[in-house]
Amino acid sequence: MAKFTLTGFIRSQYAKRPPVVKQDLTGKTVMVVGANAGLGFEATKHFATMNPGRLILACRSQSKGQAALEQIKAETGCKTGELWIVDLAEFASVQRFADKFEQDGGRLDYLIANAAVVLPKYECSKDGYETALQVNCFSMPLLALLLFPHMVRTAREHSTVPRIVVVASEVHFMATFEKEVRDKPDILATLGSAEYCTPKTILTVCDRRMGDRYFLTKLLNIMFVRALNDRLPGSMPLVVNAVNPGYCYSNIRKSLTGMMALVDFFMEVLLALPTETGSRQLVWAALGEPGDPEKLRGEYISLQRVEEVSDFILSPEGARVQNRIWDELIAMLGKVDLRVHTYLSGSV
């Protein structure tokens, strides 16, 4: 089974990365969430060089998104870029975004679900959940599921195989679910609660819970990909996968403070990949294996190849947790937007 080791991690960081894969995207629509910075920005620049029919930059900030769009236009000559606003910390914003796409009526070939946050302390979202959990693991699936029928329709009308690429990480190997959480009747509500995340005393173990939160969200990302893929008919021309970009220079960790920030600084100096290098993995997950995209269905991708996921995910207990979390997630998102149930029951 797959194991995460320090030597293996260091070796992978220094492994040679091939050039970015290229493909003619004439007439096709690419959507990159979190396209104004980091991996999302670099991946969007790559897609912009491939003549996309439409290139949608889904960003939270109007000003940062517009600046990114102008830079991409200037550097690549791409004239088909569009800025769309979505805030994954608010379910209503995701719904407005999906409504806009519903009205737009266009095709959607590639959804790069990239946006994520790292928060060292508990913050409550407008919807009442821990913010990192909502952004990384609730709103991103909500967006994907609301856009799902457009991708299915694109596949059928244009004889293509659209892809949903969820950006995960090798840190999922270091995450698991405490027995205390698994014993609760609602895993996701427990993980997102202030009681679970907030320290009761200065030295409480709960500090570690938020310190490990990003790792856990990446585990949940992979579970979502695998659970969704398990429920897609084999005949459905839609590929969903998870990709590990590697440990890269990124502003996602800008909120870290104290010892965590110091450790990350030295790790970046010694091990971090250029952000553009990591972004090639996102592009490959979307465009790789063009002759046989089924090879990437439901898979975890690292170094431009399919890799095995963590022992926990592959274990019987991991499978039970994955199914429970899927049921809880769909129940939760179905209350947010009834279209989730409608789309899944009609298409999956």
Describe what is shown at a glance:
The protein is an alpha/beta fold and 348 residues long. Helices cover 50% and strands 11% of the residues.
Describe the structure.
This protein has 348 residues and is an alpha/beta fold. The chain has a single domain (6-347), classed as 3-Layer(aba) Sandwich (Rossmann fold). It has helices at 6-14, 38-48, 62-76, 91-104, 131-158, 179-182, 187-191, 194-197, 206-211, 213-230, 258-271, 275-287, 311-314, 316-336, 339-347, and strands at residues 29-33, 54-59, 81-85, 110-113, 163-167, 239-244, 300-302, 305-307. Strands 3-2-1-4-5-6-7-8 form an 8-stranded mixed β-sheet, sandwiched between helices. Helix 2 (38-48) packs parallel to helix 3 (62-76). The protein is globular and about 55 Å long. The relative contact order is 0.15.
